[in-house]
Write a structure and sequence with these properties.
A hairpin with a 2-residue loop joins strand 7 and strand 8. The strands form 2 sheets. Strands 5, 6, 7, 8 and 9 form a 5-stranded mixed β-sheet that branches. A 4-stranded antiparallel β-sheet has the order 1-2-3-4, with helices on one face. It is of the alpha+beta class. The protein is globular, with a radius of gyration of 29 Å. Helix 1 crosses helix 2. The chain has 8 helices and 9 strands.
Length: about 270
Amino acid sequence: MKVKSLFYAMTLSLLLLLPAGCGTGEDLTEWAAEKANDGLEEIGSGIQEALDRLHNAEYQGGPFENNLESARAYLLAQLQEKYGIAFYVVGNEDLENYGPIAGATYTCDVAPADAPEQVTTALVSQTAYKDVRDGYAVYFFKEEAEEPVSALCESKEYVIDHRVSLEMPETSYRWTADDGLKNFLSQSGAYVRVTLYFEDDLNTETYAEQILDFLQSMEQLNCNLIVQPRANNTYIFFAEAQILDGFDAGSYTLEEIETMVERRLKTGDPK
């Protein structure tokens, strides 16, 4: 509404300032509209320039400078202090500046110097996240948490292959192996992501029966799960099961599962 009012006001002003000899009717309207649009474009350009200057302005007094070298050194020092071991950056570095109030945020993938296979994502920022946030603690509990899930998968004849992975949200809290698996799983937000591989080219009812059977069997586990069955090169179902909070497989019906499977097989994975 404000833009319209501005447009009308500019148009009226321009009509009053029409040059001598200018035509009437449509010619006058077109000339005025062009001049008004030119004015709006200049205003918009000025606003955008001001926003760009604000975005590019740097936060003052942060724990690291707004450059990769400084941010990397700070994050690695934070990790070493947190876990007592040396880390190094293995990829996916990103430094984003959010202006003079929020400051810069730096994220990357890291791994311990003596265990390069233990990769996790870590981040720090000049303001909100001065203490490093990461998911490295999964490696303290990975084998113990994943083993029961793998055993369940292996007990199902229709699961021809599977992949399990303990995952957690990044946190500044310092978990240790002494905290114990039960406390970690119940308090950290961690979960096990499980991908189930089914035989290809079965009918949707068979897939639904297999999925429902697996969901009912999960209630014996002591961890939260994300379950992704896969067949025909497509994820045919998705379930986020909060088992530690009382997951009920009975909330799923065979018909609902079959409908989802049918839809997924038709549409395929999102591009």
